[in-house]
Write a structure and sequence with these properties.
The protein is of the alpha+beta class. The protein is built from 18 helices and eleven strands. Helix 15 runs antiparallel to helix 16. The protein starts with 8 loop residues before the first helix and ends with a helix.
C-alpha cells in the first residue's frame, strides 16, 4: 500500500487560495491568521493572489497594480531589506524593486530641492570590488551620455557617505549612535534615474492583446532608442523583455530601455577606470545572445550584436516565444548552449507558430487579437524575412543599424518592398498592387469600375 505523499508548498498554497476565495471577504483575514500563523511570506503571497482575484472579470489591472503584484510575489520569500527606510544623500529608500548580480534598485523619495519619486541603484554590500565598481561606473556613464524619450534618464549620482560622519546625536537604523548593523558601508557608488513604473514589453503586449501592427509600432520605438545608444557609442549587449519596460504617458504606451549594466563602448572608454571583458567571460542572456557573444573569442562585439538581440525580441513579440527555448539552453550546459547559438538555424516565426498545439496556438493568436490562420498568414512573408535577417549567424548579413531594421518594418507596414526579401519582379508588382488597392485613388477606381459593370 503506497503511503500518501506530502503536498508540495505550491500545492498547499494553491489549496489554501482555493479555500480562501470561497469565504466571504469579511472572514478571509481570520482564515489567513489561522492557516498562515507565523509564516509571513505565505500570508503576503496569498493576500497578493486574493487582491488580483478581486479584479472584475475582463478588467485588466492597472499598470501599477500589475507591477506591485509581480514585485510582492517575487520578493515574498526574502527577509525584509534593512536598507529600506535609510537615507542616501538626499534620497530616502522606500522599497526594493529589483536586484541583479551586483546592484540593488530601490524606489526612493527625493527630499530636496524637489520632492519626487525616483529609482536609485546602488552596489550591493560586499560587492564593491574594483572590477564591479568599474562596471557600475560604466553603466552610470553610459546612461548619462544619452538623452532619448525611450531610455531611462539619469538624474543624479554620488557615493554613500561614511556613517561615522553623521552629525552628533543622529541615530543609526539600529537605534543607537554611530555604526549600526543596517548602516550602508562607506563609499559605494550609486546613481539615480527616473522611476519607470512599467511592465515588460512582452507582458504588456499580451495583457492588452496588441495586434501584430501595434506590436511592431511599439518595437520601432525600441529600435530608435537603441539607435540613439549606438550613435553615442554604446552597445547594450543585454536587450531582452525585462530590460524594456512599457509605461503609459497620457494613455499611450511608451517603451523605456533600462539596465545598461553590461554595456560596452564602441570606442574610447566609459570611465577613467579600465573595464575589461575577460576573454572567457560569458556576457549576456543566452536566449537573446548573438553568436559572436556566445563565441567568447577575441572577435570584437559591435552594434550588430544588438541587432541580433532585437531580432530575438521581435521574434518573441510576433510568435510568442524565443527562437531557442531559454530553459532548454540552460539545461544543455554551457558548451552545448554555445554550439546551439553559434550553429543551429532557428525556425522562421511562422513555422514556429504552425507547429504549436491547438490550445497554445489559439491562445497566442487571441493575445494578438486575431485567429490562428490569420496570424500565421501575417507572419509568413515579409516579417519572416525581416526577423531572419536580424538572426543571421554572419553579422555582415544582418541590418547594419537599428534604424535600418526600423525602416524595413515601416516599409512592411506601408506595403512597400522590404530590403530583407529578394526583390523579384512579381514581389514588387504584388506590393505595388497592394498599395494601390488600399489608397483612396485605388478605392475610387474600383468603385468606378463596379459602377460601369
Amino acid at each position: 500500500m503506497n503511503k500518501p505523499t506530502m503536498p508540495s508548498p505550491q500545492d498547499r498554497e494553491a489549496a489554501l487560495f482555493a479555500l480562501a476565495i470561497e469565504k466571504p471577504a469579511a472572514e478571509r483575514a481570520g482564515f489567513l491568521d489561522a492557516v498562515c500563523g507565523a509564516d509571513k511570506s505565505l500570508r503576503r503571497r496569498l493576500e497578493a493572489l486574493l487582491a488580483a482575484h478581486e479584479q472584475p472579470d475582463g478588467v485588466l489591472p492597472t499598470q501599477a497594480e500589475t507591477v506591485r503584484l509581480d514585485r510582492e510575489l517575487e520578493f515574498a520569500d526574502e527577509p525584509p531589506d534593512e536598507a529600506v527606510g535609510q537615507t542616501i544623500g538626499r534620497y530616502k529608500l522606500l522599497e526594493k524593486i529589483g536586484e541583479g548580480g551586483c546592484g540593488v534598485v530601490y524606489v526612493a523619495e527625493q527630499i530636496e530641492p524637489v520632492l519626487r519619486r525616483v529609482a536609485l541603484k546602488v552596489i550591493k554590500l560586499g560587492m564593491d570590488t574594483k572590477q564591479v565598481v568599474a562596471r557600475f561606473e560604466a553603466e552610470r556613464q553610459a546612461l548619462a551620455m544619452m538623452d532619448h524619450p525611450n531610455i531611462a534618464k539619469v538624474l543624479d549620482a554620488g557615493t554613500t557617505e561614511d556613517p561615522l560622519t553623521r552629525p552628533p546625536g543622529t541615530l543609526s537604523p539600529s537605534g543607537g549612535e554611530g555604526r549600526g548593523e543596517g548602516v550602508l558601508s562607506t563609499g559605494r557608488p550609486y546613481f539615480v534615474m527616473e522611476l519607470v513604473r512599467g511592465i515588460r514589453i512582452t507582458d504588456y503586449c499580451d495583457q492588452t492583446n496588441l495586434s501584430t501592427k501595434e506590436r511592431i509600432d511599439l518595437f520601432i520605438q525600441v529600435c530608435k532608442a537603441i539607435q540613439h545608444a549606438h550613435q553615442k557609442g554604446i552597445i547594450h549587449r543585454d536587450i531582452k523583455p525585462s530590460n524594456i519596460l512599457v509605461t503609459l504617458h497620457d494613455g499611450e504606451p511608451v517603451p523605456k530601455v533600462i539596465d545598461f549594466g553590461i554595456a560596452k563602448a564602441t570606442e574610447g572608454r566609459l570611465t577613467d577606470a579600465t573595464v575589461y571583458t575577460q576573454l572567457h567571460q560569458f556576457i549576456g542572456t543566452p536566449a537573446y545572445m548573438s553568436p559572436e557573444q556566445a563565441e567568447m573569442s577575441g572577435l570584437d562585439i559591435d552594434t550588430r550584436s544588438d541587432i541580433y538581440s532585437l531580432g530575438v525580441l521581435l521574434y518573441e513579440l510576433l510568435a510568442g516565444s524565443t527562437p531557442f527555448d531559454a530553459k532548454e539552453l540552460m539545461a544543455s550546459g554551457i558548451d552545448a548552449m554555445r554550439k546551439t547559438i553559434r550553429e543551429k538555424e532557428p525556425e522562421r516565426p511562422s513555422t514556429r507558430l504552425a507547429t504549436l498545439k491547438g490550445e497554445e496556438l489559439t491562445t497566442t493568436a487571441k493575445r494578438r487579437s486575431t485567429e490562428a490562420p490569420r496570424l500565421i498568414h501575417l507572419l509568413k512573408g515579409d516579417l519572416d524575412w525581416i526577423v531572419m535577417k536580424c538572426l543571421e549567424k554572419d553579422r555582415a548579413r544582418r541590418y547594419e543599424t537599428a534604424n535600418g531594421l526600423a525602416a524595413d518594418l515601416k516599409r512592411h507596414l506601408n506595403h512597400e518592398p522590404v530590403v530583407a526579401r529578394p526583390q523579384s519582379t512579381a514581389y514588387r508588382f504584388q506590393k505595388a498592387f497592394r498599395r494601390n488597392k488600399l489608397s483612396p485613388r485605388g478605392r475610387w477606381r474600383r468603385r468606378w469600375l463596379l459602377a460601369l459593370a
